[in-house]
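User: Show me a protein chain along with its predicted structure.
Assistant: Here is one chain, sequence first, then structure tokens.
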Amino acid sequence: MLDKYGIAKRIAQELQDGYYVNLGIGIPTLVANYIPEGLDVVLQSENGLLGIGPFPIEGNEDADLINAGKQTITTTKGSAFFDSATSFGMIRSGRVDLTVLGAMEVSDNGDIANWKIPGKMVKGMGGAMDLVASAKNIIVAMNHTNRAGESKLLSKCSLPITGLNCVKKVVTNLGVFEITERGFELKEIAPDVTIDEVKNATAGRLIVEGDIPVIEV
């Protein structure tokens, strides 16, 4: 299976030259460490920053430089700082090419639930609702099952919805899945994982056709 770093490395392969990308809290933030060399990608954070670099080396952190998840970060040459109103103006006007988000659940028609579990205290939805409503492309990075071993790839989300019919691709510790009209289409499988393991861990509609390549990270 892939660990969280492997998931981030695989998602980094989805980046294209010239992209403006927003990375959500959790596994998605790790993508910043694996951007292919020579690729011109600008990372945006909804708390007001364009030009996020890799995570800082331990001991070189600057407490004044943080992302939306309050993690210390670095900046790239030419980075810019601005208020959150300007940041959300960028997001809502469709200037973000790709958003990578974590999730608690994803349905086989592209719905996402990633902000609230009933009965548990949360600070709020944050920027997720704006991102799923406005980004041109949304990829989810998450483990395939929850701590109880239950599938997070479902036919219908059971938790409060963040966005409807918006997720295009899901990368989990078991594989890469494109969301199509027929459900989750397995495009790549993680090393040392079998098709049966993927089937047993997926509650939503799953399409497995032809030879499935192994993820290379």
